[in-house]
Specification:
Oligomer: heterodimer
Number of strands of chain B: 2
Structural class of chain A: mainly alpha
Distance between the termini of chain B: 57 Å
Strand order of the largest sheet of chain B: 1-2
Strand content of chain A: under 5%
Helix content of chain B: over 70%
Order of helices and strands of chain B: HEEHHHHHH
Distance between the termini of chain A: 156 Å
Shape of chain A: rod-shaped
Structural class of chain B: mainly alpha
Helix content of chain A: over 70%
Strand content of chain B: under 5%
Number of helices of chain A: 2
Radius of gyration of chain B: 22 Å
Largest sheet of chain A: none
Radius of gyration of chain A: 61 Å
Number of helices of chain B: 7
Shape of chain B: globular
Order of helices and strands of chain A: HH
C-alpha cells in the first residue's frame, strides 16, 4: 500500500508530456475552430441585436413622425370639416332665400293671373248680364234699349253690387 | 491473499517492464489507459470541431460549441477574467482529460488513472506551471515575485510573508493533486471493499455469502452512481480551482 503514495516519476513525466501534447493537438485541431465558430456566432448575434436595436429606434422615430403627421392631418380635417359645415350652412341659407323669393314670385304671378281671370270672368258675366237684361227689358217694356244705355245701366248695377260686397267684407 | 493486498492489486499500477536499451520506459497499465483516453479524446474533439450536414455531425458540433461556451463563461472568465480566454484550450482539454480519466475506471479492464498520484501530480504540475506562467506574463518576472508580498505589508514582515505566500502557492498546487487522487482512490477502494465483503462472508458461510450479495450489490450500484457524480464533480473542481488560482495571480494587488 505504500506504493500508493510514492509517485512514479517516469509515469509523471510521461503524463506531463502526453497531456501537454494533447493540449497542443486539441488546440490546433479542435478547440481553435470551435472557439472561432462560437465567437463568430456570438458576433453574428451581437450584430443582429445591434441591427434590431437600430431598426427599433428607426421605427420609433417613424412612429413619432407619423403621430405628428396624424395629429396635423386630424387638425386639418377638423378645420376643413368646420369650413364645409359653414359653407353648407351658407348655401342652405342662400337656397332657402332663393326658394322663398321664387315662391313669393310664383305666388304673386298666381295672384295676378287669378286677378286677370277674375276680371275676365267678371267681364264675361257683365256681357252676359247686359244681354240678358236687354232681352228681359225688351220683353217687359216692349221696346228696344240701345246698347249704350243698357251697358251704362249694367255698369251702375255692377258697381253697386261691388260696393255692397266691399262694404259687407 | 489478504484483503488489503487484493485491493492494492486492483488499484496499483502495473509496470510491464519495457526497456529501451538500458533505459526503463514507464509503460504501465495506467499509461496505456492514458494513451487510450488521449486517442479517444482526440477523436471525439476533432469530430466535434468538424461541421457536416448530417444530424449527428450537427449535434456533435453544437455539443462542442456548448461545451466551449460553458468552459469559457462558467469556469475561465469567472475565475481569471477576460485575460483567461487565451488559455481556454488548456482548460477545455484539462476538464475532459480528467473526466475521461475518472470515468475510465468504470469500464471493465480499464484503470482509473486519476487514482495514481503520479498522474494527478503531473496534472497539478501543469496547472502550477500555468499559474506561474500567468504571473510572469501579466506582471513580468519581478512583478510576479512582488505579488507574493501583499501591498501595505510592513517591511519587517516581508521576510515572513514572502516564504509563506510561496509555500501557499505550492500547497495549493499540491492540494489539487491530492484532492483528485484521494477522491478517486477512495471511491474505488469502497467499490472493491463492497465486492470483497461478499467473498469474505462467503469464506465463513456459503449461504451467508450468497445472502450478503444482494445488499452488497445494491450498495455497489449506489456507489457506482456516486462515483459517476464524483467523476464529474472532481473534474469540475480541479479545473475551477486552477482557473481561480491563476486568476488570483493575474489580479493580485
Amino acid at each position: 500500500m505504500d506504493k500508493l503514495l510514492n509517485p512514479d516519476f517516469g509515469v509523471m513525466a510521461l503524463t506531463v508530456v502526453n497531456f501537454l501534447l494533447l493540449v497542443w493537438l486539441l488546440h490546433k485541431f479542435a478547440w481553435k475552430s470551435l472557439i472561432g465558430a462560437l465567437e463568430k456566432r456570438e458576433q453574428q448575434i451581437e450584430n443582429d441585436k445591434a441591427a434590431a436595436a437600430k431598426a427599433r429606434q428607426e421605427a420609433q422615430q417613424i412612429k413619432v413622425e407619423l403621430d405628428a403627421q396624424l395629429q396635423h392631418i386630424t387638425a386639418e380635417a377638423a378645420k376643413k370639416m368646420q369650413e364645409a359645415v359653414a359653407l353648407g350652412n351658407a348655401q342652405k341659407e342662400q337656397l332657402l332665400e332663393q326658394t322663398q323669393q321664387q315662391a313669393q314670385r310664383l305666388l304673386e304671378q298666381a295672384k295676378a293671373q287669378i286677378e286677370a281671370e277674375k276680371n275676365k270672368a267678371l267681364a264675361d258675366v257683365r256681357d252676359q248680364v247686359v244681354s240678358t237684361a236687354l232681352l228681359a227689358a225688351a220683353k217687359i217694356t216692349g221696346q228696344q234699349m240701345n246698347q249704350a244705355s243698357a251697358e251704362k245701366t249694367v255698369d251702375e248695377v255692377l258697381r253697386e253690387v261691388k260696393n255692397a260686397g266691399s262694404a259687407r267684407a | 491473499m489478504e484483503v488489503s493486498e487484493t485491493i492494492a492489486h486492483h488499484i496499483l499500477d502495473h509496470d510491464f517492464g519495457v526497456m529501451l536499451g538500458t533505459v526503463h520506459l514507464p509503460i504501465t497499465a495506467h499509461t496505456l489507459t492514458m494513451f487510450g483516453i488521449s486517442l479517444v479524446l482526440l477523436f471525439v474533439c476533432i469530430l466535434m470541431s468538424r461541421t457536416g450536414k448530417s444530424l449527428f455531425m450537427r449535434l456533435m458540433h453544437t455539443l462542442g460549441e456548448e461545451y466551449v461556451a460553458f468552459m469559457r463563461d462558467g469556469i475561465v472568465v469567472p475565475g481569471m477574467g477576460v485575460e483567461g480566454k487565451q488559455f481556454l484550450s488548456y482548460f477545455c482539454t484539462l476538464f475532459l482529460f480528467i473526466l475521461f480519466s475518472n470515468l475510465a475506471g468504470l469500464i471493465p479492464q480499464m484503470k482509473t488513472i486519476t487514482s495514481n498520484i503520479a498522474v494527478t501530480g503531473a496534472l497539478a504540475l501543469c496547472s502550477g506551471a500555468l499559474i506561474v506562467y500567468c504571473g510572469i506574463k501579466f506582471h513580468g518576472g519581478w512583478g510576479f515575485v512582488k505579488t507574493f508580498v501583499p501591498g501595505g505589508t510592513p517591511w519587517w514582515l516581508v521576510p515572513l510573508i514572502f516564504p509563506l505566500e510561496v509555500i501557499s502557492l505550492i500547497i495549493r498546487v499540491c492540494v489539487l493533486a491530492i484532492r483528485l487522487f484521494a477522491n478517486m482512490l477512495s471511491g474505488h477502494m469502497v467499490l472493491l471493499s463492497l465486492l470483497l465483503i461478499i467473498f469474505i462472508i462467503g469464506q465463513m458461510s456459503k449461504i451467508a455469502g450468497v445472502g450478503s450479495a444482494v445488499p452488497a450489490m445494491g450498495l455497489e450500484i449506489f456507489m457506482t452512481l456516486l462515483e459517476l457524480l464524483v467523476a464529474f464533480l472532481q473534474a469540475y473542481v480541479f479545473t475551477l480551482l486552477t482557473s481561480i488560482y491563476a486568476g488570483l495571480v493575474i489580479h493580485s494587488h
